[in-house]
Amino acid sequence: MTTSALEKKPASRASGAAFILKKATISALVALVLFSLMIGVRTEAGPQGGLIYWTRFGDLAAIVAAVFGGSIVIELLRQWWGPADKVRVVPPAVQNALSLAGRLIAPALLIFTFLVPVIFYDQRYILDLAILVLTYVMLGWGLNVVVGLAGLLDLGYVAFYAVGAYSYALLATNFGLSFWVCLPLAGILAAFWGVLLGFPVLRLRGDYLAIVTLAFGEIIRLVIINWQSLTGGPNGISGIPRPTLFGIPLSPGEDGLAARLGIEFSPTHRIVFLFYLILAMALLTNWVTIRLRRLPIGRAWEALREDEVACRALGINTTTTKLTAFATGAMFGGFAGAFFATRQGFISPESFTFQESALVLAIVVLGGMGSQLGVALAALAMIGGFELFRGLDQYRMLVFGMAMVLLMIWRPRGLIGHRAPTVYLERNQAISSDLVKEGHG
Amino acid sequence: MSGETILSVKGLSMRFGGIVAVNDLSFDAGRRKITALIGPNGAGKTTVFNCITGFYRPSGGSIALTHDDGKTIQLERLNDFRISKQARVARTFQNIRLFPGMTALENLMVAQHNALMRASGLTFLGLIGAPSWRSAEARAIELARTWLTRVGLLDRADDAAGNLPYGDQRRLEIARAMCTEPALLCLDEPAAGLNARESAALSELLLSIRTEQGTSILLIEHDMSVVMEISDHVVVMDYGVKIAEGTPQSVRDDPKVIAAYLGADEEEAIAVMESGT
User: Fold this and answer.
1) Percent composition of chain A: helix, strand, coil (DSSP 3-state, to 5)
2) How does DSSP classify residue A242?
3) B160 in the Ramachandran plot: left (φ > 0), alpha (ψ -120 to 50) or beta?
4) Are A204 and A441 in contact (CB under 8 A)?
5) Nearest CB to B160: which of A299, A312, A431?
6) Is the pLDDT of residue A122 over 70?
7) A290 to chain B: closest CA residue
8) Is A432 part of the contact surface with chain B (CB cutoff 8 Å)?
9) What local confidence, expressed as pLDDT, does residue B179 receive?
10) The pLDDT of residue A91
């Protein structure tokens, strides 16, 4: 049952297996040396004050065996998902199954997402978590425009999230504007701040750009904390109106949706509504980004990431190109912020710390820069996975950090590391991540 | 009104601090002609290119570009991307600067950015998929296909530019520059790293660009076989100044040129030449 690819290279397959075994043996030997004293021998002060010791060779053997086995598993996984030109030990049947799974994962995920409120209707916790995940998916897709496509490292993305949230909160509480009026306004205001941030950083690249955007995020937060008369300072803004279904409130009152439809009111209705609202917003973000990639502006963003000097030689205005990237990313952040404000009903500067920026950036980087599906998977893993390990209490961060390190070893360019071309003549073939640049800011 | 000169460089100087890279350089490039700029390493050729294409702002002098309709643009007053956008001057780079993570076709689509931006109604028409945008995009793909065919890369259209062999990358960069539909094409060492067969193909391509597209070409080149074969006019630089210009033949026999290339005194070069003949 060997296939042609393997028949051509029987020697390399054997050497691949030998390589894996050799590597695993070396790892096991290192573990043996390291742990033989640390675990193999246990010393303690005896009852007479003398040192007594006893051996634990069973534990030692278990550890060494775990290292040996783990090393083989890691190496196999690396070969499965490694660069295309590498010799693969994995049988092609498994590879085909993997690639089929890769193609089906996006539609399957989408259908599942649509069904989440149906499946988990009674589980408020899951619905809340799903809304949270989708918020981060949307933020990730928004930041993906700036970081993934245009290659501009933005560490202050939370600023636009905050601008969107406060825009809605202030407009709604002070002027009584509805969510559907405020949503575009929040997006526009955030985009405006995106352009404002864009101007001073146009000439900056790489680390310098990252530092200035980081500072910008902090400035916005500090302004919100200190401008007490407008924003309420650290107390935040409470009593933010809940969204309505185009004017029909989702409340238990007479004119509420439940009463109008003649069904019994349930607080879950609002949760389900919020779920589909953020899902629609996230999908809109995704659709617009996919469209933009195939338009000249999107190609210019990617070209900017690849080589800015060449862009200028081709007559591309790099200034407006960068500013549009910042503005577009910021606009989606603003939308997400407005949603966040209406969902929580209360916002304070504590929700917009640097940690949020870092989390969204981690989602984009883990997902594979520029990949829409990758960002969605990474948001699911980061936010959902984080909740999954809630039982581990203080060890949660440890598991999390370990998972990220492992992921970066196997997939240094993120979950979906390859780039899909925006236009093709004959073959729509993915481009290896080795060729795609990360951008220099 | 459109004279025989497309590019007129007068008294061009470029100083970096105390270093004079280009000093009072004047030359003309003919319309629908191939002008070569040659000289030993460090003569200031690429600096001249960077001044013409807006990457440097010259310390002094003027660079005038006259389009076919007689409109003259002072290039030293434009900068950056405007040279390519408004004056329609395209360039390639000594060390190839393609977009390696994008396909060959995408590279050529990026080159048509300004035309496509207009066609997409600054993105808004494109976002809703307006028919006018769709047809403009189809035309852009057709233009890209034409150029891919011209440089013999049609079968590699969907491959990442960074995956192409070196010679193909050089030709793709020329195709990309041509997709901006330039009036003047500036090539910085297009034959560098090419073998004899590839150089010959390059010469053919450049000649066909001149005759079929009517594009004027200015090139820096070290490969003398290419320069001598295709140039209509040759300008020789050394230490930032022009030391000779004329037809390829006259330049080749100029003792000053030979001296510059051999790194010898003029008298010695003449002596070498005379003893040789």
Assistant:
1) 70, 5, 25
2) P
3) beta
4) yes
5) A431
6) yes
7) B127
8) yes
9) 92
10) 65
**A440 interfacial to chain B (CB closer than 8 Å):** no
Those residues with Cβ within 8 angstroms of residue B275's Cβ, 6 or more apart along the chain or in another chain: none
How long a stretch of residues is chain A?
Answer: 441
ipTM at complex level: 0.87
Distances (CA, A) of B27 to A240, A296, B15: 70, 37, 19
> How far is Cα A111 from Cα A133, in angstroms, rounded to an integer?
16
Residue B43 one-letter amino acid: A
Q: How far is Cα of residue A425 from the mean position of the Cα atoms in its chain?
A: 32
**B116/A431 touch (CB, cutoff 8 Å), yes or no:** no
**Amino acid A89: pLDDT:** 55
Cα separation of B34 and B190, whole Å? 13
Q: Which residues on chain A are in Cβ contact (under 8 Å) with B127?
A: 288, 291-292, 295
CB-CB under 8 Å, A435 with B99: no
pTM: 0.81
From CA B221, how far away is CA B187, in angstroms rounded? 8
**Cα angle vertex B222, ends B221, B223, to 5°?**
95
- B83 in Cβ contact with B89 (< 8 Å): yes
Q: Tokens 């004017």 — which residue?
A: A247
Mutate to test the interface with B, among A371, A431, A440 (most CBs of B within 10 A): A431
* Residue A291 touches partner B, C-beta closer than 8 Å: yes
Q: From B155, which residue of chain A is nearest by alpha-carbon distance?
A: A426
A56-89 residue pLDDT tens: 888 888 888 999 998 888 888 777 665 544 455 5
Least confident of A8-22, A93-107, B22-36, B198-212: A8-22
CA distance readout (Å), A55 to A31, A43, A50, A64, A66: 17, 9, 17, 15, 19
- On the 0-12 / 13-18 / 19+ scale of CB atoms within 10 A, A112 is exposed
Residues of chain A contacting B114 with CB distance shorter than 8 Å = 315-316
Q: Which amino acid is located at A315 in the chain?
A: G
| Alpha-carbon dihedral sign for residues A269, A270, A275, A277 | positive
pLDDT at A283: 93
Judge: A299–B81 Cβ closer than 8 Å, yes or no: no
Q: Distance (Å, rounded) from C-alpha B249 to C-alpha B253?
A: 7
Token pair belonging to A79: 């070969």
Query: A354 with A217: CB under 8 angstroms?
Result: yes
Q: Could you say which residues from 22 to 81 on chain B have a Cβ atom under 8 Å away from some Cβ of chain A? A: 53-55, 80-81
Rounded CA-CA distance A313/B84 in Å is 6
Q: What is the pLDDT of residue A2?
A: 39
A315 inside 8 A of chain B by CB = yes
SS3 B39: coil
Asked if A303 has any chain B CB less than 8 Å from its own CB, the reply is yes
Sheet containing B72-74: give its strands across: B19-30, B5-16, B60-66, B72-74
- What is the distance between the alpha carbons of residues A135 and A111, in angstroms, rounded to a whole number? 18
Tell me the CB-side half-sphere exposure of residue A254, using CA atoms within 13 A. 0
Q: What share of chain B is helix, strand, coil (3-state, %, to 5)?
A: 45, 25, 30
A10 confidence band (pLDDT: 50, 70, 90)? very low
- List the B241-246 sheet strands across, edge first: B89-91, B184-188, B216-220, B34-38, B233-238, B241-246
